[in-house]
């Protein structure tokens, strides 16, 4: 009888716990984030300055600086998220990519006078909490055992490929967004060339890229 | 998808980004929201008939100062909540300052008045519809503020929605004060505030759904 009671309790907890976990996670994340921002140790500060300079150059239109910024940022995000997603190692790379996409889509909200770490961590935390909330909602609907088994067999390969396929995601976009992204962002054509190739106006090309990347972020968010 | 491929894709043709987009978006939003509210007010209510005479009274300007400073404070809150990682430490202080000021004034006015006058000072003649008209006039600004915020990146959606609603309410009250003939501090401090809190509550409820990204 006590055994039955115990397993029932565990079952109930499984249903209830996801909500508690969100609270616990976000609290842990917030305190950790604060420590990271206020630590003020020299190497971290220098790293922050370098990263910030790369971003500021990138925002002014320097593409190679922006590429270097995103590259370094992905390593930083991976470390940041791996620490906070220790129980879900399979999700780390997906979330790194989701955060990178978010940073890119929201880069116009960075104010050069603001500490970069605070801005980055706020975005990563937002994406992290969003993921945990989504999982909690999904776990309520599906059998929790399935997830546990999946977790047990998951390996923590470093910088593993994320599970999603860019090609498949792009295929779901409307043509006015897909074509500008394929030509400009994947084939590296200029706005003018893309406009000529697609018969769209230059501003429509720019809008298409912008909206397309936002739509990609939304698709990733909603089916993750 | 490899993360390096994503990085390359994002960086390719990224181009320059216009600075100060938050300020620009909110300038547009407040312009459109206030214009929309003014049009609504002109069509539905009209300005008070004694506007020129009222403009000579100090209390008219106290009321105007209250709604304008409250709008500025809520704009500050909305700007802070629209971008990731900004400190919110000053937001409660800035937003509560105009409210505390009008409440102090209201308390002083009520203490000086005799009992019969107090009811009039508090209820005026329009308490039963004033908050609803403010909420009605805040509708254009509500849409505009949500649009501005949606184009930025709020990370605390409930609070951000509340700030957008507060800004809408404050702009609605600002425009409404051109029509409204009430000028007693107790009335302003309660019924105006109540009117501004209606869109704030709506924003708090809708924020998480409307502002996700």
Q: Would you spell out the secondary-structure blueprint of this structure?
A:
The complex is a heterodimer of chains A (224) and B (213).
Chain A: H1 2-38, H2 42-59, H3 63-84, H4 89-105, H5 116-141, H6 144-153, H7 166-171, H8 175-186, H9 191-198, H10 202-223
Chain B: H1 3-11, H2 21-44, H3 51-54, H4 58-81, H5 91-112, H6 115-123, H7 130-137, H8 139-150, H9 157-179, H10 185-210
Helix pairs in contact in B: 2-8, 2-9, 4-5, 4-9, 5-10, 7-9, 7-10, 8-9, 8-10, 9-10
Model description:
The complex is a heterodimer of chains A (224) and B (213). In chain A, 79% of the residues lie in helices and 0% in strands. Chain A is globular and about 50 Å long. The N terminus of chain A is likely disordered. Chain A is mainly α. Chain B has 213 residues and is mainly alpha-helical. Chain B has 10 helices and no strands. In chain B, helix 2 packs antiparallel against helix 8, helix 8 packs antiparallel against helix 9 and helix 9 runs antiparallel to helix 10. The two termini of chain B are 21 Å apart. Chains A and B meet through helix 3, helix 4, helix 5, helix 8 and helix 10 of A and helix 1 of B.
Morphology of chain B: elongated
Overall SS class of chain B: mainly alpha
Q: Can you tell me the residue ranges of chain B where pLDDT is under 50 for at least 5 consecutive residues? A: none
Q: Main interface pair?
A: A-B, 58 and 31 residues
Features:
heterodimer, A: 224 residues, mainly alpha, 79% helix, globular, disordered N terminus, B: 213 residues
Describe what is shown at a glance.
In chain A, 79% of the residues lie in helices and 0% in strands. By secondary structure, chain A is an all-alpha fold. In chain B, helix 7 packs across helix 9 and helix 8 packs antiparallel against helix 9.
């Amino acid at each position: 009888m006590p055994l039955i009671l115990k397993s029932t309790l565990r079952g109930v907890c499984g249903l209830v716990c996801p909500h508690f976990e969100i609270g616990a996670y976000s609290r842990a994340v917030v305190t950790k984030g604060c420590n990271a921002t206020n630590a003020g140790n020299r190497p971290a500060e220098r790293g922050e300055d370098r990263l910030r300079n790369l971003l500021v150059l990138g925002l002014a239109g320097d593409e190679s600086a922006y590429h270097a910024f995103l590259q370094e940022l992905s390593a930083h995000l991976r470390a940041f998220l791996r620490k906070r997603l220790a129980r879900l190692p399979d999700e780390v790379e997906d979330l790194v990519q989701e955060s990178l996409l978010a940073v890119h889509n929201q880069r116009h909200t960075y104010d050069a006078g603001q500490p970069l770490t605070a801005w980055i961590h706020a975005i990563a935390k937002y994406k992290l909490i969003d993921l945990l909330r989504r999982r909690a909602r999904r776990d309520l609907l599906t059998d929790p055992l399935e997830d546990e088994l999946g977790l047990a067999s998951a390996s923590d390969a470093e910088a593993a490929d994320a599970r999603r396929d860019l090609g498949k995601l792009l295929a779901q976009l409307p043509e006015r967004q897909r074509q500008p992204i394929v030509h400009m962002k994947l084939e590296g054509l200029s706005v003018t060339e893309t406009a000529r190739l697609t018969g769209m106006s230059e501003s429509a090309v720019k809008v298409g890229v912008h909206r397309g990347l936002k739509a990609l972020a939304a698709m990733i968010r909603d089916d993750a | 998808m490899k993360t390096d491929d994503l990085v390359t894709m994002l960086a390719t043709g990224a181009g320059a980004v216009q600075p100060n987009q938050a300020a620009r978006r909110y300038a547009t939003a407040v312009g459109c929201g206030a214009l929309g509210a003014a049009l609504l007010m002109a069509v539905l209510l009209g300005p008070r008939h004694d506007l020129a005479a009222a403009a000579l009274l100090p209390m008219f300007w106290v009321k105007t100062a209250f709604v304008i400073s409250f709008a500025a404070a809520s704009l500050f809150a909305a700007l802070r909540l629209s971008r990731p990682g900004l400190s919110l430490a000053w937001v409660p202080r800035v937003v509560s300052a105009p409210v505390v000021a009008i409440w102090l004034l209201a308390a002083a006015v009520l203490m000086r008045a005799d009992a019969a006058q107090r009811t009039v000072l508090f209820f005026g003649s329009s308490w039963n519809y004033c908050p609803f008209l403010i909420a009605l006039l805040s509708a254009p600004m509500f849409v505009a503020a949500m649009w501005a915020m949606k184009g930025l990146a709020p990370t605390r959606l409930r609070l951000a929605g509340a700030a957008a609603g507060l800004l809408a309410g404050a702009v609605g009250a600002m425009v409404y004060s051109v029509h409204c003939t009430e000028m007693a501090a107790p009335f302003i401090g309660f019924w105006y505030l109540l009117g501004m809190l209606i869109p704030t509550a709506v924003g708090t409820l809708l924020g998480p759904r409307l502002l996700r990204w």
